[in-house]
Design goal:
Mean pLDDT: 91
Oligomer: single chain
Number of strands: 0
Distance between the termini: 34 Å
Number of domains: 1
Shape: rod-shaped
Low-confidence stretches: none
Largest sheet: none
Length: 126
């Protein structure tokens, strides 16, 4: 009968309520952190898409300008456009060969830091 007192029961009930509240707060914090990280990732994706689209439009115009400039120097517009196309084919081969170093590894590191790093959470010691 030592463990069964009204004060002990009240303490156990309060402890269970606190544990439940702590669990719900941790879940809410996890949801907020995930929402923040997903918003950051989607923002980078949208910004990257916008920058890539604008850059590709500029690249098209620069390619046409280079083709016409080479055409006046080479005397043949078709041959000049072929030289520009060969340049882009060579550039594409270089990017394909270095895709792991230039694309895959940095993207993997970024996503790892974004979703798996725990250095900015203040309650790691709990």
């Amino acid at each position: 009968m030592l463990f069964y007192s009204k004060q002990n029961v009240e303490l156990i009930c309060q402890l269970l309520k606190d544990i439940k509240e702590y669990g719900s707060l941790r879940l809410e914090r996890l949801q907020l952190d995930l929402t923040q990280k997903m918003a950051l990732a989607i923002g980078f994706l949208v910004m990257g898409t916008a920058v890539a689209t604008i850059s590709l439009c500029a690249l098209i115009f620069l390619s046409l300008a280079a083709g016409y400039a080479l055409a006046s120097w080479m005397g043949s517009r078709a041959l000049a456009m072929l030289v520009v196309a060969a340049f882009y084919a060579a550039a594409a081969l270089v990017v394909y060969a270095k895709r792991h170093d230039w694309i895959v590894k940095p993207l993997t590191l970024f996503l790892h830091e974004l979703f798996l790093s725990t250095k900015d959470t203040p309650d790691n010691d709990v």
